[in-house]
Amino acid sequence: KKIAVLISGNGSNLQAIIDDQAKTSDLYVIALVISNRPDAYGLERAKKAGIATLCIDHTDYASREEFDTQMQLQLDQAKIDLVVLAGFMRILTQGFTQHFLGKMLNIHPSLLPKYTGLHTHKRALEAGDTEHGLSIHFVTPELDGGPVILQAKVAIENDETEQSLQQKVHQQEHIAYPLVVRWFCEERIQLIDNRVVYFGQQL
Ligand code: GRF
Question: Is 108 labeled as catalytic in the residue annotation?
């Protein structure tokens, strides 16, 4: 399968997928990395791995529709089977999410449905939660609201800081995201009637 990874920043999840791809090389190829920000460090990671990159700077577009249309054009041209959002910080239009329905994943740093949106680590700490984590879900028009495929939990300790919590969650993200990408490419998961259907054994 041909996958594309969409980023806005550091791209540590992209790196985890690049490393996984190197290990499981015949299962999928990372055909394209798109960033909406020219300064995203993830673009360097992709280039170093010899992956085609594209910067589609959202500030060059008058509307979300025009920006999304340009991304869709590029993804369709590259014949992408799976779009992987990895720290991609733009809200996507209904049209774009519909076009890639069942073919687009996102990773969110909270145990959804808790804490959609931003500053999830801070919010979990402030709420006095004892556990936190990440969710990987199919993308639907509802922001951070698509059906969850996999979650991983981390404990919140007494002396936890926002930074230490973020680090713990990141560590788990780097294990979980490549795993779910593999499941998709092996056709073990599918979005059917707004639900995740699992085929075969997962772990
Ligand atoms: C991750 O925490 C992810 O859950 C969120 O954005 C962050 C991206 O980090 N959506 P990176 O760019 O992959 O390092």
Answer: yes
